[in-house]
Specification:
The protein contains six helices and nine strands; from the N terminus they run βαββαβαβαββααββ. It has about 220 residues and is α+β, with helices and mostly antiparallel strands. It has one domain (about 1-210): Alpha-Beta Plaits (2-Layer Sandwich). α4 packs antiparallel against α6 (about 180-185). The N and C termini lie close together (about 5 Å).
Length: about 220
């Protein structure tokens, strides 16, 4: 799979205009290779964050060639934004959860947890090993965790995203399981800076691709 992380700093007073534009992206639903897209507002901030997942990089490149500019012109979100930052990269790990597939997780989730991790030089492979051996099984055992991904956005940057049934389920995980996982993971040995987001998802921003295999 291939992931895309979109960070939009929205002009004060322009949230409604931005949200109206975001709904134009529902046209993506029949685009070949789309797994799904979801996002929401960062609490107490004029900042929208979105995660899109594609079957592979060629499918994403096809979308850019064929349809991106047309939908972007209709959405007109540049006029309601101060800055839009887009980061992309391969999904290097999928995390199991309470549902059998990522499309199902995207369809059911009401909350997205994202950890934007900037890594120490030379620590990327160890970081990914820890994701596989500690975090993936640890979070899969948490009630309400539906599934997740790790996307490598740069040589020293990984985005860890998990989808949750409710904010209460995520809170229970942070209370009951997170402390032990943190102790095992020794995060500071790999991660030099971490920016975390817990997003209530906007239902009208969710776009699910046509049923098909997810690679």
């Amino acid at each position: 799979m291939f992931g895309k992380w979109i960070d939009c700093r929205v002009r004060p007073g322009a949230r409604e205009a931005f949200a109206a534009g975001q709904r134009h992206w529902s046209a993506l639903s029949d685009q070949p290779g789309l797994v799904g897209q979801t996002g929401g507002w960062q609490p107490d901030a004029d900042r929208a964050l979105l995660l899109a997942l594609w079957a592979d990089e060629p499918a994403y490149a096809r979308f850019l060639r064929e349809r991106h500019d047309r939908i972007a012109d209709l959405a007109d979100q540049r006029s309601s934004s101060l800055e839009i930052e887009v980061s992309t990269g391969p999904v290097v790990l999928t995390m199991p959860g309470a549902v059998p597939s990522l499309p199902a997780a995207l369809g059911r989730a009401t909350v997205l947890r994202a950890a934007d991790c900037r890594l120490h030089p030379g620590r990327a492979e160890h970081f990914l090993d820890v994701q596989r051996e500690v975090w993936a099984p640890g979070m899969a055992a948490a009630d309400g965790m539906l599934g997740g991904t790790v996307t490598r956005l740069a040589a020293d940057r990984c985005l860890v995203t998990t989808l949750w049934t409710t904010a209460a389920a995520h809170h229970a995980y942070t209370t009951d399981r997170l402390p032990a996982l943190l102790a095992r993971a020794a995060v500071a040995t790999d991660v030099r800076a971490l920016t975390g987001h817990l997003l209530p998802l906007e239902p009208s921003w969710r776009v699910l691709g046509a049923p098909g295999p997810v690679l």
